[in-house]
Every structure is written in structure tokens, then in C-alpha cells.
Amino acid sequence: RKEVEQDPGPFNVPEGATVAFNCTYSNSASQSFFWYRQDCRKEPKLLMSVYSSGNEDGRFTAQLNRASQYISLLIRDSKLSDSATYLCVVNPEGGNKLVFGAGTILRVKS
Amino acid sequence: DGGITQSPKYLFRKEGQNVTLSCEQNLNHDAMYWYRQDPGQGLRLIYYSQIVNDFQKGDIAEGYSVSREKKESFPLTVTSAQKNPTAFYLCASSITAGRSETQYFGPGTRLLVL
Hints:
The structure holds two protein chains of two kinds.
Chain A: E1 4-6, E2 11-14, E3 19-25, E4 32-38, E5 44-50, E6 55-57, E7 60-65, E8 70-75, E9 84-91, E10 99-100, E11 104-109
Parallel strand pairs in A: 2-11
Antiparallel strand pairs in A: 1-3, 3-8, 4-5, 4-9, 6-7, 7-8, 9-10, 9-11
Chain B: E1 4-7, E2 10-13, E3 19-25, E4 31-37, E5 44-51, E6 54-57, E7 64-66, E8 76-78, E9 87-94, E10 104-105, E11 109-113
Parallel strand pairs in B: 2-11
Antiparallel strand pairs in B: 1-3, 3-8, 4-5, 4-9, 5-6, 7-8, 9-10, 9-11
């Protein structure tokens, strides 16, 4: 089983739609969690950290479910500019090492 | 502007050749990292450094070497021992070592084998 698993997609949605991605992780002792966004042929950029209580940043909402070992990302009112690959990232040991999922591709169409 | 720079953007390697990828940061970050990204896979850690003159192997260190002689610089050498070097190489840094800090990435170097 991979340490971090994501549905690769692609998710094809119309502008204005709400879309949700899930990510599961295998290490129950994992310490911290992130969502990164990666545009085609570019470097990953931090979208948001994921906190135990859940957190929201504009149209983006992240949730953590420790009991079921998954995190989610909800995007409301999708924009064309949201088209990208979304990487689920987990810190399993609390140190420097991060584990990256392979990413979920989102395509928002007009 | 503060940030992480990587050069070159594209690099071509001949069989049996060693090549070095540059990574420089002016963020005053202590920790630096090298990752490799292949299509359809997550980023995999090659090497990381928590402080000057110290570095540790990541998950796929074979065929690679690094140095950390200056805080700002963390070059990666892809040696001839790395049999499948074609990939997108990403350098990252974080403020402190030993904690779960956000990592910031450079623009990457694409390495292709001729």
C-alpha cells in the first residue's frame, strides 16, 4: 500500500462547480498535512496546510479525518485558473521528510 | 526578490557523464532538499540537508551526490551510476530543520538523457 494515495483523475468540471478530492494516508502517527498545487511543468506551490479542526481559505476548504486516515480538499465555484494537479502531502514522522501523493488532475472547462 | 533558483532549466546528459544541477536560495532557510518527479508518481526525496556541511540520504539516493558548503547552495550531482536519470528535479527549502515546516520549491530542472 502506498503511504499516500490519491485518485489521479482527471476531474473534468464546468466553471462554477464544486469539486472535492480525497487523499488517504497509511501511517496513523502522521503529524501534519498539506495540499500543494502544481501547474503543468511547474514547481509545486503550497495551497494550504490542513489542521485538525479543518480550515478554509476563500473558496478552498480542507478537512482532516484522523480516524479514517484521510484528508480532503473542497473547491467551490471553480474557476478556469483552478485547473492544475493537486498534491496531497503528509509528514509521517514530524521531522523534515514529507511524503507526496502522485496528484489529482483537475480540469475546469467553460 | 527572495526565492529559490535552479539552473539550468533543461539539461542533457550523455551516457557515462556526470552532471551537476544548481540550487540557490536567499531565504536564509536552514534546510534544503532535492526531489525527483517522474510522470504519474509523487515526488521522491533524493537527499536533504538540515545544516551546512551535513546532509542525509533520502529514499532514492543511489547514483546521486550532494554537498552543502554554504547555507545558500545545495548542488546535486547526477552520476553515471544513475541508470535512469531522465526526470524533473526539484529543489526545496524550509526555514528550520527537524520540524514540520512548509517547503518552498524552486522552478525545477528537466534532465534528459541523449
